[in-house]
Write a structure and sequence with these properties.
The structure is a single chain. The protein is mostly helical. The chain has 10 helices and no strands. The protein folds into 2 domains: about 10-70 and about 205-255, no CATH class; about 70-205 and about 270-279, no CATH class. It is rod-shaped.
């Protein structure tokens, strides 16, 4: 994700550079034909693109709002993952009392916390379609890696290992039944957050709605030069290009925001959040 306050102009325009070139050539051709051959029939009433542009603005506003809602929901979910991970660590440190002669308990807590950090990384990578176990060797033991490799969902397998460790801690008397319930409740909330992320990932934005807006946008761009040619002359070339660029950027922004787990710069910063959890 782009975490800096300033976004390079090159990055923004790079998303629509080919469209800008085509629109400039198209508008230049319309202006040249009108001037060279004095074809006044090429013009249309300005009200036609104005009405279409107004309708298109409303559609793009609704589309952008829905896309941002998906992106913001993803960010809220990962914010809850941060909180629940800290809660889980705090509960372990408070419930499992370790002393100078308790290396086994200390190892248990370290293993549990490292596995939770690995869970955050693996969830983020799996949502982006990457290898969820990449770089996990420094956080997981060989036995744990062998266990999760037998599961389709690595994050879910890691939560299962969490649950097994809670059962072990209860049997060893390191925690009581009430403490196990509290810890298991935290794991349930983490599992719930994982399910919400998967829901956003697997729920596709309605393609028909996107296509209708896309076609309406290009139809508006095709009509715009004919509507302003009588009023601005040669200035219509940069004017139409700039206006079309604004509409295209808004549409492209909505397309990127609607899928916050696609490994794009505008994604939810899952790896950055995971690193902050690890620290």
């Amino acid at each position: 994700m782009l975490l800096k306050g300033k976004i390079p102009v090159k990055y923004i325009l790079g998303k629509i550079k080919y469209e800008i070139i085509l629109i400039s050539l198209y508008t230049s051709t319309i202006w040249y034909l009108s001037k060279e051959y004095n074809i006044h029939e090429l013009s249309i009433p300005l009200g036609v693109p104005t009405i279409l542009g107004t309708v298109l603005s409303l559609l793009l506003a609704f589309r952008s709002n829905q896309a941002y809602d998906r992106w913001w929901e993803a960010r809220i979910i990962w914010g809850s993952i941060v909180n629940e991970s800290r809660t889980l660590t705090r509960q372990l440190l408070c419930f499992v009392q370790t002393g100078y002669n308790d290396p086994e308990k200390k190892y248990f807590i370290d293993r549990f916390v490292n596995r939770q950090i690995s869970w955050c990384y693996s969830l983020g990578k799996s949502l982006r379609g990457l290898d969820p176990l990449e770089g996990s060797g420094r956080l997981l033991s060989k036995k744990e890696i062998a266990f999760v490799k037998n599961h389709d969902s690595v994050p879910y397998a890691l939560l299962n290992l969490h649950a097994k460790d809670l059962k072990l801690a209860l049997e060893e008397g390191w925690i009581n039944e009430f403490q196990q319930v509290e810890l298991d409740d935290t794991l349930s909330r983490l599992c719930d957050a994982m399910g919400k992320c998967e829901r956003i990932k697997n729920t596709v934005f309605p393609m028909t709605y996107s296509l209708y807006i896309h076609f309406a946008l290009y139809f508006f761009i095709l009509l715009l030069p004919f509507g302003v040619i009588e009023y601005v002359g040669a200035i219509e070339i940069p004017l139409v290009t700039i206006l079309a660029s604004f509409f295209l950027l808004i549409e492209r922004m909505a397309v990127h925001l609607q899928d916050p787990f696609e490994n794009r710069p505008t994604d939810t910063p899952m790896m950055s959040i995971s690193r902050s959890i690890e620290r």
